[in-house]
Amino acid sequence: MPAKHFLQLKDFTRGEFEYLFRRTRYIKEKFKRYQPHQTLTDRTLAMIFEKQSTRTRLSFEAGMHQLGGAAIYLNTRDTQLGRGEPVEDMAQVVSRMVDLVMIRTFEQATVERFAAHSRVPVINGLTNQYHPCQIMADIYTFIEHRGPIEGRTVAWIGDANNVCYTWLQAAAIFDFKLQVSSPPGYGVEPERAGIDELSHYEHFPDPMDAARGADLVTTDVWTSMGFEAEDEARRRAFERWRVDAQMMRLAKPDALFMHCLPAHRGEEVTAEVIDGPQSVVWDEAENRLHTQKALMEYLLLGEIKDESK
Ligand code: CP
Ligand code: NVA
Fold first, then answer.
1. 201 by DSSP, 3-state: which?
2. Are 253 and 278 in contact, with CB atoms under 8 Å apart?
3. Segments making up each domain of the chain, as ranges
4. Torsions phi, psi for 60 (to 5 deg)
5. pLDDT digits over 234-288, tens only?
6. CA distance 114 to 154
7. Assigned architecture for domain 9-131+285-301
8. Read out DSSP for 209-262?
9. Which residue among 15, 109, 232, 251 sits deepest, i.e. has the most Cβ atoms within 10 Å of its Cβ?
10. Residue of 159, 220, 234, 259 marked active site
């Protein structure tokens, strides 16, 4: 049977996410009580990084250790990938030695080519197009704080980047509305969303209008990894796309603020908002650990029916 992969959020159904979130809650509660949860003993995860990371590396590596397995960190500089070994050959070799692979790279096509030649499940740890592990953790965090996200309104302020396109997929899967505001030239291109219908999406030229009535306001850096050459032009274009207290006042009074991190205070968000009472950014970061433990377990063991395991 071909391995199951997690390359885009839409690779999983809503039912699968509901299972993963139930499992995450269980795994997180055990973690908080210092109870071991070692369902992946003797399993090995290879993590391939072609871009930098703090949270993704830490959460996958710590997560795999906590599940009883081992994690190996690989990067372009120290592997033959950096000297041009084809990704297909790398996939053949890596997937004969480990049980699971996580990749952070530039092009989505790279993770797809890797997965097509891998014997074991492959997880997208961020590409230029998508960041599914992040949004899985973000949706879980929203539900923890506010209950179901179905029927709610999420405001995305800023660049239509990998995180934004993953929120677009999430809106279709979980049935909520995504109000997006991006500067001209940096907006959503519907064909890049990877979904057939965009009925959950609405664009607002003015960022203040996108935030109006939202249950959650979220943003990300103006310049993502790989786009550093555009930094100066982006700083000028994004000047009005900053989440500040005035914008948060237009959202619902109990609206949450999220940011996948790392953040630039004073650019895409003010310190007052990210360090303020509506911000749940630290829960968001922590939940990367718990949701990805559930994900790794699911990819290797499938759905666990016995609630005591
Ligand atoms: N949010 C996120 O993926 O962070 P890192 O780049 O630190 O992994
Ligand atoms: N959009 C950002 C997210 C970093 C976690 C980037 O791709 O750099």
1. strand
2. no
3. 9-131+285-301, 133-280
4. -70, -40
5. 999 999 999 999 999 999 999 999 999 999 999 999 999 999 999 999 999 999 9
6. 33
7. 3-Layer(aba) Sandwich (3.40)
8. HHHTT-SEEEE--SS-TT-GGGHHHHHHHTTT--B-HHHHHHS-TT-EEEE-S-
9. 251
10. 220
Looking from the CA of 78 toward its CB, the CA atoms found within 13 Å total: 8
Segment 30-57 shows an average pLDDT of: 98
Q: Do the domains at 9-131+285-301 and 133-280 have one common CATH topology? A: yes
- 54 pLDDT exceeds 90? yes
Q: What percent of the chain is modeled with pLDDT above 70?
A: 100
Choosing from 221, 234, 267, 284 the residue with most ligand 2 atoms within 8 A of its CB, the one to mutate for a pocket test is 221
The answer, yes or no, to whether any atom of ligand 2 lies below 6 A from the CB of 264, is no
User: Taking the model in full, what pTM does it have?
Assistant: 0.97
Beta bridge partners of 101: 46, 122
133-280 topology per CATH: Rossmann fold (3.40.50)
CA-closest residue to ligand 2 atom 2: 224
Question: What's the pLDDT at 237?
Answer: 98
For residue 225, report the distance from its CA to the centre of ligand 2, in Å. 6
Pairing of strands 177-181, 216-219: unpaired
Concerning whether 220 is annotated as a catalytic residue, the answer is yes
Cα distances (Å, whole numbers) of residue 203 to 3, 23, 154, 168: 37, 35, 12, 12
Whether 131 is catalytic = yes
Decide if 221 contacts 186 (C-beta within 8 A): no
Give the count of beta carbons closer than 10 Å to the beta carbon of residue 178. Answer: 25
pLDDT in tens, 180-214: 999 999 999 988 999 888 899 999 999 999 999 99
Backbone angles phi, psi at 193, to 5 degrees: -70, -20
Q: Which ligand is nearest to the CA of 264?
A: 2
